[in-house]
Amino acid sequence: MRTLVLGLLAFLIGAVAANAQGAKTKSIIDQFRVSSPIKIGDAPHGMWKLGQSLVIAVSGEDRLARLDLDSFGGAPEFLPSIAVANTPLDARPAPGGGYWVAQFMSTAVVRVNESGKILQSIEAGKSPSLFSNYKGQGKWSIVSEFADQLTLFNAQTGTDIQIVKTGKRPYPASVLADGSVAFIPLRGENAVQVYDLVQGRELAHIGNCAEPEGGDLSADEKWYLAACNDVVLWINTGDYQDTYRTTGLGPRPFAVLTGDGGRFAYVNNAGGDTVSVIDMASKAVIGALVTGQQPIVMREFGGKIYVTNEVAGTLNIITPPTRR
After folding, report:
1. pLDDT tens digits for range 88-103
2. Pairing with 65, which of 24, 207, 242, 274 sits 20 to 30 Å away (CA)?
3. Does domain 31-319 have CATH number 2.40.37.10?
4. With contact defined as beta carbons under 8 Å apart, do 44 and 54 qualify?
5. pTM of the full predicted structure?
6. Backbone phi, then psi, for 90, in 5-degree steps?
7. CA distance 34 to 36
8. Pseudo-torsion of CA 148, 202, 237, 189, nearest 10°?
9. Torsions phi, psi of 59, nearest 5?
10. Pairwise CA distance, residues 144 & 152, whole Å
């Protein structure tokens, strides 16, 4: 009898603890705020914030939209668009003036001025897609999906170009802050390639990652998180071991963004209309936030997460809960 009572007591304590944890998780996800959708245009993709202006590559309309963020909260106002041919998939303000733009239906990354005139062009291979993080020694990097290539270049001058031949169908890479190593999702090989940019050699080829289309480094660079079909794979950057897996995501997890100072990771579920939120400490999904149909690109600016939705043609801005 005593054993039965103790067992029942242990069960009840466990149930109370589980309910308390569930309530805490729900409380955290309820503190996130998602803005009303802002209509951008046909198939918006990559974006970048400069001051109070947000430039967005509108790939379905061959133009760059420029949203005046001072108008946020009221009727959105836009600066004049910039025409860019060949399906612009991403854009960033160039340090030397104008904008660097990835032309997906060409082989070039171009720098254009505000009139759309091409000032510089870099040969990057067939179908340059999204710019990667631009930490490594001041260089930017971009993959070209159908050229099996990673191109790094000095964004200030458009020179000092480094070409890396990758595995099949690379998606946006993440580069360590010292510029030494790149982590490259290979959709065509169900793997993540780890490449030494200094020595020019592959360090690891990590399989068991179905059709990866994106990933990101943790704030402390101890982990690389890859979106692998229905899970997020945690790769230790010290020994390149597949160490943890996070499940419970939405349809077609597309990419990962580790934002907000290392507290959370965000996964855009491109097969639906949500962004899953992962608690970096527990490595578990704490909930999902509703955006627009097919969230496709996520970027963090000033602690907020900006999400473009390809099918909906909209932008949402996610505000995480404040630190306590």
Report:
1. 999 999 988 999 999 9
2. 274
3. no
4. no
5. 0.90
6. -155, 155
7. 7
8. 40
9. -70, -30
10. 11
